[in-house]
Amino acid sequence: xxxxxxxxxxxxxxxxxxxxxxxxxxxxxxxxxxxxxxxxxxxxxxxxxxxxxxxxxxxxxxxxxxxxxxxxxxxxxxxxxxxxxxxxxxxxxxxxxxxxxxxxxxxxxxxxxxxxxxxxxxxxxxxxxxxxxxxxxxxxxxxxxxxxxxxxxxxxxxxxxxxxxxxxxxxxxxxxxxxxxxxxxxxxxxxxxxxxxxxxxxxxxxxxxxxxxxxxxxxxxxxxxxxxxxxxxxxxxxxxxxxxxxxxxxxxxxxxxxxxxxxxxxxxxxxxxxxxxxxxxxxxxxxxxxxxxxxxxxxxxxxxxxxxxxxxxxxxxxxxxxxxxxxxxxxxxxxxxxxxxxxxxxxxxxxxxxxxxxxxxxxxxxxxxxxxxxxxxxxxxxxxxxxxxxxxxxxxxxxxxxxxxxxxxxxxxxxxxxxxxxxx
Length: 424
What we know:
alpha/beta, 5-stranded parallel beta sheet, 13 strands
């Protein structure tokens, strides 16, 4: 790529982070550490880079020493891995030969072979941070190439606390609050769960249209185009069925049979590949059955969307599904996706976290529905036969109390309060 053109693009892009207002995210970032930020598109990975740049600037690092390149820029569509060294040369030129530039490379997965350049630069003791919107960045081959020189940081849409801060509400709503405060936090929670938590969404009035644009970018760009899929109808149908099954395990065989029932000739392996593309793009994530055999853990997981707003686009009546999906997102934010499970073995528990001995059931309401209350609380008693002395929490839309069932204490807590308790 032409050197002068590349330099001009780098200068132009500098205006991006200089002119952005930064809302500090709840991620602890150490100095002198290289980070690889990964996650779904528009979730704020770039803003974590801007946050780091502002911190460097506050410590007296001149802007001439900052090199930021966003590879989503359409002017960089033809860029090759060999051009990455030109970027480094331009950075050295702009920062002065006596100073090493700080490199921030956004959506670098668009360049084939990027990982070897990044490894080499890290070995030369440059500070370098990268982002990506595809989990293949974390494949075993690439992870081996990076060789422990980066800390992987999963970036999620706003937590509820971050969402309140972005909406200029910074009270401690866990304290005894007034009727007005309660109405305020409930209104914001309802917006949060309905439309999701992409950071840019806060300042947008037509939230559904914005969500649709994000979905189309992921669907068309990260799934269809990137993987050269011609049967886009199959992708749409799979996503629809996964959305309808968010609260239940769903096997590849079941998905394949659903597609065949519509008259679509598609094999199980193709379904497996398509679902893999969806998780690679971070549109979906999976949780495994803690009580299942290994093969069943892999083939019959629960699927959740990375944002409740995207799930809402797929369903007409989505309140119950969005509630459980939101709990799933918060749990992987707190504990990591590899440490969160569901439990199904003659008893159905929505979520189980072994490291905390924590069992969680989710229901819109239980106190006024005898059958629902009996079903949800009895499940905890059955779980106690398999795993004694687990802490039991029942998350609801708005109800709060303490229950006792068969000698087991069960905390019933409204979702908005449970979300805020993450910071205690």
